[in-house]
Amino acid sequence: MVSYVSALLYGVGGIVVAGMALLVAFQEKLVYVPVLPGLTKSYPITPARLRLPYEDVWLRSADGVRLHAWFIKLIPECRGPTVLFFQENAGNIAHRLEMVRIMIQRLQCNVFMLSYRGYGASDGYPSQHGIAKDAQAALDHLSQRTDIDTSRIVVFGRSLGGAVGALLTKNNPDKVAALILENTFTSILDMAGVLLPFLKWFIGGTGSKGPKILNFLVRSPWSTIDIVGQINQPILFLSGLQDEMVPPSHMQMLYAKVASHNRECIFVEFPNGMHMDTWLAGGDRYWRTTQQFIENHVPEIKEHESCHDDKGTFA
Hints:
Blueprint: H1 2-31, E1 54-60, E2 66-72, E3 82-86, H2 97-107, E4 110-114, H3 128-144, E5 153-158, H4 160-171, E6 178-182, H5 188-195, H6 224-228, E7 235-240, H7 248-259, E8 265-270, H8 278-281, H9 283-297
Parallel strand pairs: 3-4, 3-5, 5-6, 6-7, 7-8
Antiparallel strand pairs: 1-2, 2-4
Helix pairs in contact: 3-4
């Protein structure tokens, strides 16, 4: 009996030690994947390949890191909404251009695509504190532009980008008009147990029942569940029910956290949507939902010039 208990204790101790070693050594590589397997860090294409007029934007984050972004403007004279887009954790902004091309067509908006530090042409190495600074630099840049309607800035984040966008929106109630979250996790602490199931007893977010004794080792917790409850701007939740990476229950928990106090929240499910392709699987309904949300919550100010051509249709 004693030997059995000893073996059990040694086993548990081994799991804890192995978990600690994995977290300390590899957590950034699990959370941030700037380079997809078999590809390079550089952009495979630019917006010009898709005939999108764009501007290369170079920024400095608050800690001095040089950042790169693309600003894609619908029409030179257009003062419609501007979407500040934050991508998932893997690859770079070039891999999102096809989705952004359709976004511009369907939503009649401008799009600002930021490369996080360590991604694409941006310098540095990714971390939660660093990327939060990068997002703020992007928003500050947009807020100072004179060629857009700065009262109609919408933050759009998918997966990791949702965590980035939620924090930015919470911190800037006077600059961000609305937030769109797609397939976003409650926290990296909760995702640790999804990606590495044996860790779920030792790492977890606010809803976890485990002892959470290894939480202190997580350098990028991205606790979106604790952030969304502090957001008062309108939020659209877009959830793909076939998400193979982030359990759809995470999106449901995020919505439940904020819906009790924020009446301008909408939750929409897409039965066939997976982690990366909800925008594609959702088809026309996906874009109509997003367009209606922006029209209702980020309306055009009448005195501003519209994006219509002489025939009264969208150019």
